[in-house]
Automatic annotation (TrEMBL):
Transmembrane segments: none annotated. This is YlxR domain-containing protein. CDD domains: YlxR (cd00279). It comes from the Bacteria.
Length: 88
């Protein structure tokens, strides 16, 4: 049986199968964006997709901690919108 890769949600800390998580990427240019394919080049951070964890992008600065950098408010709002639209 093949091992299913697991990742940890950057907000709640829950370990979940990678394919069930939402990936946010920081590429070499320092751009941070939602990755619907899960295959974009760069450092990935994962969200479980619950509303609480999605809201924490803004409230708790979860992405700032994950990528160890200051991320612009507009970028965070765009990622939140992309994630919410992807769940529909």
């Amino acid at each position: 049986m093949r091992k299913i890769p697991q990742r940890t949600c950057i907000v709640c800390g829950e370990k979940i199968d990678k394919k069930n998580l939402i990936r946010v990427v920081k590429n070499k240019e320092g751009e941070v964006f939602y990755d619907p394919t899960g295959k974009a080049n760069g450092r990935g951070a994962y969200l479980c997709g619950s509303d609480e964890c999605t809201e924490a992008i803004l409230k708790k600065n979860a992405l700032n901690r994950a990528f160890k950098m200051e991320i612009d408010e507009a970028v965070k709002l765009k990622i939140m919108d992309d994630v919410k639209n992807a769940k529909k």
